[in-house]
Amino acid sequence: MLRVLLFPFALLFDLITRIRNYAYDRGLKPAVRFDIPVICVGNLAVGGTGKTPMIEHLIRMLRPQHRIATLSRGYGRNTKGFRLASSADNASTLGDEPFQMYLKFGDQVSVAVGEDRAFAIPHIIQAQEEAPTVVLLDDAFQHRRVVPKFSIILTDFTKPFYNDYVLPAGRLREAARGARRADAIVITKCPSDLTEETMIEMEHEVRRYADKPVFFTKIHYGEVVPFAGGIGKSINPDVILVTGIANAQPMKQYVQQQYRLIEHVERPDHYDYNTKDFEELESLLKKHPKASILTTEKDMVKLRSASFSGKNTQLPMFYLPIETEFIKNGEDFDAMIMNAVGRDE
């Protein structure tokens, strides 16, 4: 019933985005194409589709032959404008995902944030002694002021874009036909037992909107890592799960398979943790003294904040890294990217 009531607003939103896209398609609105290859990773829907693990996959693949810069808007940060990550930054100044990227790859990759990507890219190039040879744009499919060399859109297996509606009736930022602008479409967070039949069916649905290569990935969970300076080197069988991500269900299911899930402290995406959250965790540990606290790598970058020092080092806290893993044809995907960016001479 609510969707029916919101449908007229969705039609209006669709009209606005259609006019905007038409203006860019016809050159009525200016867009910039850069000399160095720009790879865009985005999605049609709001919410988490696994963009950060995909960016990390691209970094690992391209790093041996390229100097890489990543650029995102920096959602949730308390700063504005262009900012090149440095040791003085944290999740508040960069945003949780860019800061996570900096912690993991900062010695290998230039990490930057900026709302206006067309403005930010030249600044990234000028700020480096050795300019990057590839720029990876995070969540920029609708940021049409930059013309990418290659565009990837991600869509969640449980919520594929072709079964969704435009905002506010659904979760789409633009109509499903926008998928035609992509060079590759990746269906993420697939179950490990995904059948060939299901893949064929989903690929057929995607091709109703975009005749582009379709790939399927699943989440690969890494080894649990203790917080730096925290107590405990190995995680206990009893776990208190803490998440502040768009869709915690896959991780919750994995934790239930590997551990005894005692409690799940679930917060909204990009949640800013505070002292009361640590007090809640301390209370839960008093109730379950043999439990360990497990969280996502994305949440870790906020929970390890200096403002919580003395709290996070006194608790048995661990985080679970994830990677994206192609179910099949991953080599074909990598070859498409390498062909698009070329080799750094």
TrEMBL record:
Gene Ontology BP term (one): lipopolysaccharide core region biosynthetic process
Keywords for this protein: ATP-binding, Kinase, Lipid A biosynthesis, Lipid biosynthesis, Lipid metabolism, Nucleotide-binding, Transferase
Pfam families registered for this protein in UniProt: LpxK (PF02606)
GO CC entries: plasma membrane
UniProt key word Lipid biosynthesis: yes
Pathways involved: Glycolipid biosynthesis; lipid IV(A) biosynthesis; lipid IV(A) from (3R)-3-hydroxytetradecanoyl-[acyl-carrier-protein] and UDP-N-acetyl-alpha-D-glucosamine: step 6/6
GO MF entries: ATP binding; lipid-A 4'-kinase activity
HAMAP family named among the record's database cross-references: LpxK
Protein family: Belongs to the LpxK family.
Protein name, per record: Tetraacyldisaccharide 4'-kinase
Source species of the chain: Pseudochryseolinea flava
Gene: lpxK
